[in-house]
Amino acid sequence: MAYEVVIGLEVHAQLLTQSKMFCACGTRFGLPANTQTCPVCLGLPGSLPVINGTAVEMAIRTGLALNCTVQSNRFARKNYFYPDLPKGYQISQYETPICEKGWIEIKAGSATKRIRINRAHLEEDAGKNVHDGGTDGSRIDLNRAGTPLLEIVTEPDMQSADEVVTYLKTLRDILVYLDVCDGNMEEGSLRCEPNLSLRPVGQQAFGTKVELKNINSFKFVKDAIEYEIKRQTKVLNEGGKIYQETRLWDVDKGQTAVMRSKEEAHDYRYFPDPDLVPLTIAPERLDQDRGSLPELPVARQQRFVSQYGLPEYDAGVLTSSRHLADYFETCVKLFNQPKTVSNWVMGELLRELNHSDTPVEASPISPERFVSLLKVVDNGTISLKVARDLFPELYASGKSPEQLVQEKGLTQVSDEGALETIIDEVMAKSPAQLAQYRSGKDQVLGFFVGQVLKASGGKANPGKVNELLKRKLAG
Ligand code: ADP
Ligand code: ZN
Ligand code: MG
């Protein structure tokens, strides 16, 4: 039997606010346990929550960027018991989420595909149980309790692991461009839970879905979904039944395993939180926010193609991060040769940044110093080859290209006398090739150019070398 895969995604994005969702505690990661807490996020009796305006603002901006209806809304209590949840309920949104019914477009081969957003709502994160062993049992760190999250839920519109990864990357880029989330999956600021089911090709009704958790990188998203498609296909082909359950991705085993079945699912007894007033969003405010949205990744990519004449591919790489796109545009302002800048950014710069695991916003080479290297190539001071070889040192040393060129004596040799001396030596060493050339084999010229450049340590000006060689080889 042939099956069709159906996938919908729930994503939790940690919002980049200074303080928590309902209290003034900070949101910093990695502080000593329970140092970032107060009566509100500890759930002490009598304490009252206050809505974080910045988190609301971020949710509004995200909703608009995701083409959602952004609406007045209210918070609800989601009741369950767990040690990392001190109040015994999580403040979330249920019947009226702040954002509803939107969509984003993702690349699907050469076409685009629209993925519908069902809803995006605000909620608070829980704390963390720490099981670091010893005889005194497990402990609880509530530093994270109350951190603002935006949960973004799609309709079941995706059909393969690749589509899910593309959707997730597209969504992450939008969130990072909006400055509302750092998008770091490994650190858990972007968490992804795919829901996946199969149905016989041609069937309308959806099959039973399984929810996948514990996925903290793009690679694991792909691996877990591909594993789950195989597993469900096998079960169905063997006449078995898929149970609605939550399964955890096990990285070491490369498989998913049941965490809980539907029978164990909670009844959350949602009800509006009486401690919080309904949140009213005025239409004028939405207009204002809509007007102040930054240029989003897809629009910026298209502009890079039309404004700078870059290939689609270059534009895609350069706009994959807002900081990289900013870096590129700063360079082009200083040196108006977009394709040259693009080649260097995508090649040399990204290579060094990746090697040293440095984000472009922390690049040790400023756009100014980067561009000054391109300028000394452009004005003929050094050859392209020397510039490429020099790049790692430029990156690591903090020196200017001019300084390095001088220290290392790398100035390009264009002086005819000096070049002729090298050419004479090469010609004297290669009588056979010389004879070939003179008998009409023009392509041997390339051999001589290569030899001369090599003998000059890459410093000879290639244009000059070509010109002089043609003259001298002719005899
Ligand atoms: P639940 O009540 O279990 O949370 P929802 O209806 O809220 O389920 O959907 C959660 C996610 O699962 C959404 O992204 C939705 O698109 C997706 N989903 C719903 N039904 C299916 C299905 N049969 N197969 C795959 N994904 C589904
Ligand atoms: Zn607090
Ligand atoms: Mg749901």
Descriptive account of the structure:
The chain is an alpha+beta fold and 475 residues long. The chain folds into three domains: 3-284, no CATH class; 295-408, no CATH class; 416-473, Arc Repressor Mutant, subunit A. Helices cover 41% and strands 19% of the residues. The protein has 16 helices and 14 strands. The chain has helices at 39-42, 53-65, 161-177, 218-237, 283-291, 297-308, 312-318, 322-334, 338-355, 367-378, 384-397, 401-408, 416-429, 431-438, 444-455, 462-473; strands at residues 3-14, 69-70, 76-79, 89-92, 99-108, 111-124, 128-130, 139-141, 148-154, 190-200, 210-213, 245-250, 255-261, 271-272. A hairpin with a 2-residue loop joins strand 5 (99-108) and strand 6 (111-124). The protein starts with a strand and ends with a helix. The model has no long low-confidence stretch (mean pLDDT 93). The structure holds adenosine-5'-diphosphate, zinc ion (ZN) and magnesium ion. Residues 20, 23, 25, 37-38, 40-41, 146 line the site of zinc ion.
Short description:
With 475 residues, this protein is of the alpha+beta class. The protein has helices at 39-42, 53-65, 161-177, 218-237, 283-291, 297-308, 312-318, 322-334, 338-355, 367-378, 384-397, 401-408, 416-429, 431-438, 444-455, 462-473, and strands at residues 3-14, 69-70, 76-79, 89-92, 99-108, 111-124, 128-130, 139-141, 148-154, 190-200, 210-213, 245-250, 255-261, 271-272. Zinc ion (ZN) binds at residues 20, 23, 25, 37-38, 40-41, 146.
